[in-house]
Amino acid sequence: MDKLQAVKGMNDVLPADEPLWRRFEETVAASMRSYGYRRIRTPIVEPTRLFVRGIGEMTDIVEKEMYSFIDSLNGEALTLRPENTAGVVRATLQHNLLHEGPQRMWYAGQMFRHERPQKGRYRQFHQVGAEALGLAGPDADAEIILLCQRILDDLGLTGISLEINSLGQAAERRAHRDTLVAYLEANQDVLDADARRRLHANPLRILDSKNPAMQSLIEGAPKLVDFLGDESRAHFDRVRSLLSAQNIPHRVNPRLVRGLDYYNLTVFEWVAPLGDTVLTVCGGGRYDPLVEMLGGKPAPGCGFALGVERILELMREQAIDTDPSQCDVYVVHQGDETLAAALDAAERLRDAGLDVLMHAGGGSFKAQFRRADGSGAQFAVVIGPDELARGEVGLKWLRDEGGATASGRQRAVALSGLADAVVDAMLAEGESD
Ligand code: HAM
Question: Are the beta carbons of 293 and 170 closer than 8 angstroms?
């Protein structure tokens, strides 16, 4: 039989990666909470037409990257979500959430895009995103950017730069687009096949091309910024001045267009060198047209989504500190008569708020201590028949200050006062750090 393997481009996240994920997830949850964002959980499968309408028919995502299928029970066209802004807006409309006023929401989970897998680009990947709905002012754009920047900073990441642009409003983009198409048509001979195909459907995306033969043409192309009206300009200037007042460095990149059709006004991306390429680790912007595109009464929105695998890769590269321990306390025990006491000791320690790994599977004390060391626990609780008969257990220090293994220190403590003794010992260790 063939060996069963995960689908290409879809990765298992193994327990060894838990410390990294935990550091990331805890940082995200704390930051979201500190800005008043509440978590929303929407289905991974949505009607295909949600993304066709929301993301746009001519985008790469909808044209060639969606995992779509027909529900064999009712013939409905369904898609594994390639992103979650459309899903969040759908849920907001379905449950009439804007009736209660503006909504600040965040999400985390798997997304699916049928791209060519490579480092930092997968077919199943994770995003963490935040969406602010019902807020039209530049303060909301600034808040969303500050929130994302805080997550990156709190993770301890460096070297990630923020690029920002304004896409203006539809009429401004139309005027720019007409001029751009005329310019590109006048230079047809320089366009590659992809660009020619996009010329009328999605000419802005031509400006994203990496084809070296087209770079000077792209350099000289009419710029959207020159087509922005007073209101769009004022919105952009205000966002930028709010960011500057908060000392958030950013660079205006007039070529930043994003790959989804729902944006207007502010768009932004955080980019970082990863290995020998530069990857976008986060993207977002304002998407005021989206609510109406999905059938709702017009309402503004803006948000971002972080690419989790890319962030984790940067955390690895920058050796961001994580806590590798599996537990605080490892309980070793020997002899049938100690089992019930060991289970009880573990439960009481957990009652006291400690993370406890209870040895299972028997073995010599020596073998059990090897496991205890491997678990990263700070202490082992040692339960043997003789000590137990005296109402005592051993408390053994597994780590010296700084995390090095085994000082060998051990003392007897009364079983009845075990949890207090461990908590006191942990506090004492914490103070001496
Ligand atoms: P996006 O730029 O398509 O935007 O994706 C956001 C981030 O997801 C990217 O910057 C990247 O880090 C990560 N990402 C995208 N595709 C892949 C992939 N194949 N493998 C690994 N990571 C990937 C959106 O999805 C919008 N919904 C963002 C948004 C939220 N705009 C407003 N609110």
Answer: no
Q: In this structure, which long-range contacts are made by residues 213-216, counting pairs with CB atoms below 8 Å and at least 24 apart in sequence?
A: 214/190
Percent of the chain topping pLDDT 70:
98
Ligand 1 pocket check for 160: Cβ under 6 Å: no
Instruction: Give the residue carrying structure tokens 């573990």.
Output: 346
Cα radius of gyration rounded to whole Å, the chain: 28
Residue 129 in contact with ligand 1 by CB distance below 6 A: yes
Query: Is the beta carbon of 172 within 6 A of some atom in ligand 1?
Result: no
Every domain of the chain and the residues it spans: 15-168+228-317, 329-425
Residue 262 has pLDDT above 80, yes or no: yes
Domain 15-168+228-317 has CATH 3.40.50.150: no
For domain 329-425, give the fold: Rossmann fold (3.40.50)
Ligand 1 centroid distance, CA of 286 (Å)? 14
Residue having the nearest C-alpha atom to atom 2 of ligand 1: 283
Q: Give the three-class secondary structure for 80.
A: strand
Q: Is the pLDDT reported for residue 416 higher than 80?
A: yes
pLDDT, tens digit, for every residue of 283-321?
A: 999 999 999 999 999 999 999 999 999 999 999 999 999
Segment 155-169 mean pLDDT: 97
Q: Would you state the structure tokens that stand for residue 64, as one six-digit string?
A: 């060639």
Q: Judge if the beta carbon of residue 122 lies within 6 A of ligand 1.
A: yes
How many angstroms is it from 270 CA to the middle of ligand 1?
11
Beta carbons of 346 and 310 less than 8 angstroms apart: no
Rounded Cα distance, 307 and 289, in Å: 24
- Please, which pLDDT band fits residue 76 given cuts at 50, 70 and 90? very high
Residue scoring higher pLDDT (431 or 190): 190
